[in-house]
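Task 17 of the worksheet. Students: predict the tertiary structure of the chain below and write it out as structure tokens. Keep your answer in the requested format; marks are given for formatting as well as content.
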Amino acid sequence: MQSIEKQTSFSEMVMAIQGQAFTTGQKIAGYFGKRHDDVLRKFVKHSEIA
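Model answer:
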């Protein structure tokens, strides 16, 4: 398993909009050191399964 060494605060990763927690694919990609298009591809694949 990959180790995450970055110290990112929760408030940098997640924002609240009308009481709901949200983040962006770009923030997720940056946090995990992945390409944004790869993260989006996973989102789409997962949404097709769910």
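Marker's comment: The chain has three helices and two strands. Strands lie at 15-17, 20-22.
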